[in-house]
Amino acid sequence: MQYCHDGCEVRQTPEYAFALNPRNPQQGLFVSFYKLFLRAWGEPGHPEYDFERCELVYRDTLGNDIRREPFMRRPAAA
Predict the structure, then answer these.
(1) Predicted TM-score of the model (pTM)
(2) Helix, strand, or coil here: 48?
């Protein structure tokens, strides 16, 4: 992870790696970010992508389809 804003040289800002520490997995930020990621990933408000139909699929907390919306692909560059 790296902080950057408009007008800032990216190479001059510190970089942070949130890696799992195999010797002591309870220390560090990896576990906290991993838990946050898993909770956000499983939220029903985030749509899934149906690759066969090119649609976004919204589901309720039980996993049932609520609605589907077409997802437009960008045209290929000429």
Answers:
(1) 0.47
(2) strand
